[in-house]
Design goal:
Structural class: mainly beta
Distance between the termini: 40 Å
Order of helices and strands: EEEEEEEEEE
Helix content: under 10%
């Protein structure tokens, strides 16, 4: 059973930073590529970033490239997304997924970037 729980969101001013976490109590993330998606109010889901199983290969969507870093601690079975220089357009609910399967998302975390 895929269980994913994102956390770490909140209200942050433009230019600020947040680190999102994703716990996966139902399976071992070390066997899977893991991804982050986001969904802004009134919009469809947007893929943000993916990390291969050992974290050695990462990719990002252009709007966050250079401002965000995906990482994982397989020993803690946790995925992370460090986001810096946040912009208002980063406001969204962020979800982690197994591989790039939107259907596997669980609880998301809301990031609001506003002054």
């Amino acid at each position: 059973d895929v269980q994913l729980q994102a956390s770490g969101g909140g209200l942050v001013q433009p230019g600020g930073s947040l680190r999102l976490s994703c716990a996966a109590p139902g399976f071992n993330i070390s066997s899977y590529t893991m991804s982050w998606f986001r969904q802004a109010p009134g919009k469809g889901p947007e893929w943000v970033s993916s990390s291969n199983a050992d974290g050695g290969s990462t990719i990002y969507t252009d709007p966050v490239k250079g401002r965000s870093t995906i990482s994982r601690d397989n020993a803690k079975n946790t995925l992370y997304l460090q986001m810096n220089s946040l912009k208002s357009e980063d406001t969204a609910v962020y979800y982690c997924t197994r591989q790039s399967n939107w259907g596997s998302r669980g609880q998301g975390t809301l990031v609001t970037v506003s002054s």
